[in-house]
Design brief:
CATH class: Mainly Alpha
Structural class: mainly alpha
Mean pLDDT: 77
Largest sheet: none
Shape: elongated
Number of strands: 0
Radius of gyration: 18 Å
CATH topology: F1FO ATP Synthase
Helix content: over 70%
Order of helices and strands: HHH
Length: about 110
């Protein structure tokens, strides 16, 4: 159980604290440019990693349910596609946020 808590704390720190450190720094070019690049890279990496895991689990669960009950295809397929679209939209939001950070701080 403590290993899960440590993993969650690490993910929280990397996901939320690294970008907030980048945004809290001054907007001038200089030695802080690396912090912005790290924040963008970590944010994009975690968004894609989490999105891939979420989509894989959603598709796996939906296909397993369809395999167990083939008559449920109509009831499972549409919510699965909707869930996949929502997960993908979160990745796209991070992509847009990374480009906003990129444009705001002038790399």
């Amino acid at each position: 159980m403590s290993k899960r808590i440590a993993t969650f704390a690490t993910l929280f720190a990397v996901t939320f604290l690294a970008p907030s450190l980048a945004l809290a720094a001054e907007g001038t070019s200089g030695p802080n440019d690396g912090v912005y690049a790290i924040a963008m890279a970590l944010g994009m990496g975690l968004a894609v990693f989490g999105g891939g895991l979420g989509q894989g689990r959603a598709a796996s669960a939906a296909l397993e349910g369809i395999c167990r009950n083939p008559n449920s295809v109509d009831k499972v397929f549409t919510p699965m596609l909707l869930g996949l679209a929502f997960v993908e939209s979160l990745v796209i939001f991070m992509f847009v946020t990374a480009f906003l950070i990129y444009g705001k701080f002038g790399f």
